[in-house]
Amino acid sequence: MSTNFLCSPVVLQQPVFRPFRSSNLAMATCVHSSGTKAPPQTNPSIGDHVFDNYVRFCRPNLPDTVSCAPISEKKSKPQIVNPNERAEDLWLRMKDEARSDVDQEPILSNYYFNSILCHDSMENALANYLSMKLSNSSLPSGTLYDLFLGVLTEDREIIFAVNDDLRAVKERDPACISYVHCFLNFKGFMACQAHRIAHNLWSKGRKILALLIQNRVSEVFAVDIHPGAKIGRGILLDHATGLVIGETAVIGNNVSILHNVTLGGTGKVSGDRHPKIGDGVLIGAGTCVLGNVIIEDGAKIGAGSVVLKQVPARTTAVGNPAKLIGGKENPIKLDKMPSLTMDHTSHISEWSDYVI
């Protein structure tokens, strides 16, 4: 393995945030950069245009704790933070958490040193940890480390997305006790970061390498994401086992997806054939979303559903085949971001009389 754990500093201008819009299916990159936005308007009635502002307000480039209160309770303007500074702050916090863990469990000192404490940056540690996880007897970890570090050093947008994903997992998953715990032990997080590297290679025409990484991630983490798929920031892949995402799928920002979810096609159709998932969407376990259909911003898909048609913004779809809670003509509208609340059972009385 390469012993060069230092990288040259990168000077960046503040990037411009372009959120995923359900009305526009084109997404140029797999990660989105952040920027300044006007604060949300105060209005006790949650209309569609106000919810659009809410989607942007709850971007993962805000402080660590993102409130899930309705937009009417938001009053302060979000603070502008340099993404490079935020990434460095989170990395230092992870190292502090690692030292604390070693104090509690000295038996893990060598593991934490090699995985976290001996590295000077997030990209070094991520390249090292992924290379160790995905290597095998014919694919040395040193070779993978050099490849991964080169991509992460060149494309800082990936590191910004990595930090947003870490915060998303810590905020939304009550099983996550620390950032370093997520980094080392959550395979959904690690599979997502491996995909970001694979997508970078795919976009540059290095498709053989990208597909190799996809295959190793599938074998090691039981997560199969085609390197052509485009994935935003602030992503939670909870448990992640059995997750399948097709080549032309697009996933927006602040999306939460549970295990055994398929974002797939409907047959042998070629071209653009996979789902488009908007910002703030929550997809429950065991769900299949099939075909080139749109799940609009802030929608929620109940566990075990089969979705074959477009789901409007801020609505809940459940069942096989999936139906909208409240009916197609007047569906119940959500006033909170489902991917942040992680609420899988609200309005259950509206559609089910099941009683234990």
From TrEMBL:
InterPro entries: Hexapep, Hexapep_transf_CS, LbH_SAT, Ser_AcTrfase_N, Ser_AcTrfase_N_sf, Ser_O-AcTrfase, Serine_acetyltransferase, Trimer_LpxA-like_sf. Its EC number is 2.3.1.30. The keyword Acyltransferase applies. Residues 90-194 form the Serine acetyltransferase N-terminal domain. Keywords: Acyltransferase, Amino-acid biosynthesis, Transferase. The keyword NADP does not apply. It is an enzyme of class 2 (transferase). PROSITE patterns: HEXAPEP_TRANSFERASES. Pathway: Amino-acid biosynthesis; L-cysteine biosynthesis; L-cysteine from L-serine: step 1/2. Belongs to the transferase hexapeptide repeat family. This is serine O-acetyltransferase. It comes from Rehmannia glutinosa (Chinese foxglove).
